[in-house]
What we know:
The chain has about 325 residues and is an alpha/beta fold. Helix content is about 35%, strand content about 20%.
Amino acid sequence: MSNPDITTPVRRPRRLRTSQVMRDFVAETHLDPAQFVLPAFIAEGIDAPREISAMPGVYQHTETSLLKAAEEAVAAGVGSIDLFGVPTPEHKDASGSQAWAADGILNKGVAALRREFGDDLIVMADTCLDEFTDHGHCGVLTTDNWGHTVVDNDATLPLYATMAVSQARAGAHVVSPSGMMDGQIRVIRDALDAEGFEDVAILAYSAKYAGAFYGPFREAVGSTLQGDRKTYQQDPRNARESIMEVQLDIEEGADMVMVKPAMPYLDVLRQVADMSTVPVAAYQVSGEYAMITAAAQNGWISREPAILDSLTGIRRAGADIILTYWATEAAQLLA
Length: 335
Ligand code: PBG
């Protein structure tokens, strides 16, 4: 007879973990490459792709190597590419004017992608001035009444509008304002509509935190930033504020909203996913990529399962769309 001191479990959750087929049968969370976005960099003045040292496997691209990377992404089933431009230092100025130049490096890259892939790949453009300003801030600078240099919100807005229109003209399906200026979605929507680009969508970087995980990206874009972005990006200690940012962006016309970074802000992502009436994206940023890559290179973590684990967590927390430097590789792993 059974030992009366030992109680037999009535519920046995392990039953649904007994085989791979069973585990797949009951899985709640699925990763779909169609909802992956590959962030990519096109650099001016290079004649061969240049690997970013803090992001092994990620490159500053030439136009040729960009098209090749995009081709691989499309072949793997990746839905979108989000392009960042890296101008030469001579092409940076106080207002970031190369950001909206038709022959600026970012717009040239956008045009090349759209020409090559048409509607088979969602071409997304980063809509922010930081790569193009000589001071590295996301907006233009001014001096306040106390003599401090500050980023001028309202003077930056028309520049974002001009930049977004230039990106639409170059062929972007989606513009993605990432500068965290108040009111940026409204001015961009109005400007796009006024120029006949009412079908160009806006992915708003709504809840973007001034966190510590952007370091490798700064190298990736040759950032000249001194100091930080704490007067415009959000304080990592606050979650409630993200709800307001998302609400405002939706009211202003955002078609999709984003939480960024992803892994340190999964709680924010869940809250946003629960209240948003538009699709929600999350950006697995450069520092997240670098951490897993470095640990794997040291043999401290198993690379491929860690990549999939990290993406599954982001998806489970509520992201529909995931921006990840592993987009192509993860898509291949899932195939
Ligand atoms: C700025 C921008 C940043 C990233 C995307 N857009 C850097 C920043 O806010 O300092 C970071 C992306 C990453 O770290 O992967 N427009």
